[in-house]
Amino acid sequence: MLHPYSVNAASENWVHEAVSAKVRSALEAMNAGVPVTLWAQGLQLDLAEREALKSRYEAFCAAALTLTDLERTALLQALVDQNNIPAVFDGVSACPRLDSFPDKVRDAAKELFLAAFDSLKSLKIRDRQYAILYGNLPGKRCPFCGIEPFEAPGLTREDLDHYLPSSHYPFAGANLRNLTPMCGKCNASYKLAKDVICDDANNRRRCFDPYGTDRVEVSLLNSRPFEGELIDGVFTLPAWEIDFIGEADRAKTWECVFKIRPRYKANVLDAFFRDWILHFAFWCARGSLAVNTHDEVVAALDWYIQVVLQEREANSSFLQRATFSMIRKRCAEGDEDDRLADWLSALVRAERASTAA
Q1: Within this chain, do residues 179 and 226 fall inside the same structural domain, yes or no?
Q2: Minimal CA–CA distance to 111: which of 19, 34, 229?
Q3: Would the pTM of this model clear 0.85, i.e. be above it?
Q4: C-alpha to C-alpha distance for 256 and 244, rounded to whole angstroms
Q5: Cβ pair 153, 131 in contact under 8 A
Q6: Does 247 lie in the same domain as 178?
Q7: Kind of pairing, strands 243-245 and 217-219?
Q8: How confident is the model at residue 115 (pLDDT cuts 50, 70, 90)?
Q9: Which of 238, 195, 226, 211 shows the shortest CA–CA distance to 339?
Q10: What pLDDT digit, counting tens, does each position of 1-13 carry?
Q11: Whether residue 154 is found in the same domain as residue 15
């Protein structure tokens, strides 16, 4: 993940807390052999009068009454474990999935917390959460890919993903610490209902906490110029090496779930490399920068990165900056007998000649 969200956006978590408390109280009452409290008892009016929540709470209680004390105790522990955030992201902490629940209560648990999630919209909690996230998000782009821009509050709301999928972890279905806006491509095309804490073989894995502090930076420094595909019969792409600087296990899960490397390569690096290089040549030509020698090319690259690409934390051109940082490094090292610097210098001269003509 490129930029974690502000944890302040998860502060209005009272719906999750209230529904979880009702479930906990009901299961404990059943095990103690005392009457279960009515839905509205102890709840604030905003939730007490919601018929969808009331009916699904009653259905859950009816299903739970058919269980043994041990089964209800296991459900109580699952309620705790599925909401033990961020510990569940460490790849070790217990987090039982829905398929470990007794059959009789699975649908009821899912439906109750789905109703709780639905209430976040009508209570405007989602809107307030998104406004806080957007206001504190560098670059205003999806932090899971860094490519797609986010809509401003008041426009079409971005997808709200269940980071721990509700199909496996229903008790976290309304927990704001588990609800993360992401762009439609990340959500609908890549993440879907993938389990971020278990791989396809159901082995536990580490992942980023969307509201934590860990993040990755993208490096292209190991990419190799002139070793990729030929485009337009003129430009040879680099052989891209996309490296992630950060906690390796979490970055591996992030890349696996969101298919970051192939998206960066196909949708950005391959697609825009030619335009980026030609713009550099245009900029140098229009600015009358001297780029005749190896050292002059390196100086021009330094100036271009500093002035045009501007090393801001989350500017949308982060892959372009990473590309020119790689090019600058290769030129400074004199790779390929200065072939790269000579190529850039020739492009600038050609741009100047076309302008003069």
Answers
A1: no
A2: 19
A3: yes
A4: 13
A5: yes
A6: no
A7: antiparallel
A8: very high
A9: 226
A10: 999 999 999 999 9
A11: yes
- Which positions ≥6 away from 78 have C-beta within 8 Å? 96, 100, 101, 171
**199 found inside a domain:** no
The whole-angstrom separation of Cα 303 and Cα 249 is: 36
Enclosing H/E stretch for 179: strand 179-182
Inter-residue contact 207 to 201 (CB < 8 Å): no
Tens-place pLDDT, residues 128-175: 999 999 999 988 999 999 999 999 999 988 999 999 999 999 999 999
Question: Quick one: 147 and 234 in the same domain?
Answer: no
pLDDT digits 0-9 by tens, 19-76? 999 999 999 999 999 999 999 999 988 999 999 999 999 999 999 999 999 999 999 9
Give the Cα-Cα-Cα angle 273, 4, 316 (nearest 5 degrees): 25
- Which parts of 211-347 are beta strand (E)? 217-219, 230-231, 235-236, 243-245
23 lies in some domain: yes
